Amino acid sequence: MNVIFMGPPGAGKGTQAEKIVSEFQIPHISTGDAFRAAMSQGTPMGIEAKGYVDKGLLVPDEITNGIVRERLAQPDCDKGFLLDGFPRTVAQADALSEIVDSLGKKIEVVINLAVDRSYLLARLTGRRICKSCGSTYHVIFNPPQQEGVCDKCSGELYQRSDDTEEKVGTRLDEYINKTAPLLDYYQKRELLREVNGEQDIHAVTEQISSLLRGLA
After folding, report:
1. Closest Cα to residue 96, out of 2, 213, 211?
2. Could you give the CA distance from residue 52 to residue 54 in angstroms, rounded to a whole number?
3. How far from each other are the two terminal CA atoms of the chain, in whole angstroms?
4. In a domain, 92, yes or no
5. 13 assigned ligand-binding residue
6. What residue numbers bound the domain in which 193 lies?
7. Is position 34 annotated in a ligand binding site?
8. How many domains does the chain fold into?
9. Is 171 considered catalytic here?
10. Is 31 annotated as belonging to a binding site?
């Protein structure tokens, strides 16, 4: 089965993706991983992408699309794949449609992990990290025994600069604004399925798995 996975920062996509690929034995393809692999393997698109990356420039869509095409054409995708982080725009969604058509495949479902903005703010801004050992805590979901102190090494806990409410809010707004047209795009094609990402992790996994089993 060929699946696109969507969801805002902090929705738990990484955790759920691990469980999905384990159960259904399909590769988890993130654009970041695909870029790194293409550049390290020296594929034609990887070489072009490296030229932009080395200069600190954004990689154009045509190269990103080409790298995705190279990845989806590999043998481990013959039985399906889970795409994460692509497409990000309607233009990329159109390109993906052409890519899968040319490979004799089709997107079967787009799963969106739906999580309220206020819930995401609480989840992302509550993270605390130990300065000494790097252990991670959360003021609501996984608090230390003593506030501000690591359970493992008694080190001081701190909040990363990009976990502040202002910066997290900016990231979420950017995601929501860019993704809304994409959700509408797949809704019109009757491919979009929403899963409540605010449930218990195991409940989210079961809902996604049940949905995918219905397609298998």
Report:
1. 2
2. 6
3. 7
4. yes
5. yes
6. 2-26+79-115+174-213
7. no
8. 1
9. yes
10. yes
Q: Is residue 62 part of a domain?
A: no
13 has catalytic annotation: yes
Task: Give the CA distances from residue 181 to residues 86, 92, 186, in Å, rounded to whole numbers and listed in that order.
Answer: 14, 12, 9
Q: Do the annotations mark residue 77 as ligand-binding?
A: no
In degrees, to the nearest 5, what angle opens at C-alpha 93 toward C-alphas 187 and 50?
150
Residue with tokens 């469980």: 19
Local confidence band at 55 (pLDDT 50, 70, 90 cut-offs): confident
Q: How far apart are CA 48 and CA 43, in angstroms?
A: 9
Looking at residue 21, which CATH number applies to its domain? Answer: 3.40.50.300
**Catalytic residue selected from 79, 131, 160, 178:** 160
Whole-structure pTM value: 0.83
Output phi, psi for 129, to 5 deg: -125, 140
Convert the pLDDT of each residue in 168-215 to its tens digit: 999 898 888 888 899 999 999 999 999 999 998 899 999 999 999 988
The predicted-structure confidence for 159-168, as pLDDT tens digits, reads as follows: 988 889 999 9
Would you say residue 97 lies in a domain?
yes
Catalytic residue flag (residue 160): yes
Task: Look at residue 83 and tell me if it is in a domain.
Answer: yes
Annotated catalytic residue, options 123, 127, 128, 193: 127
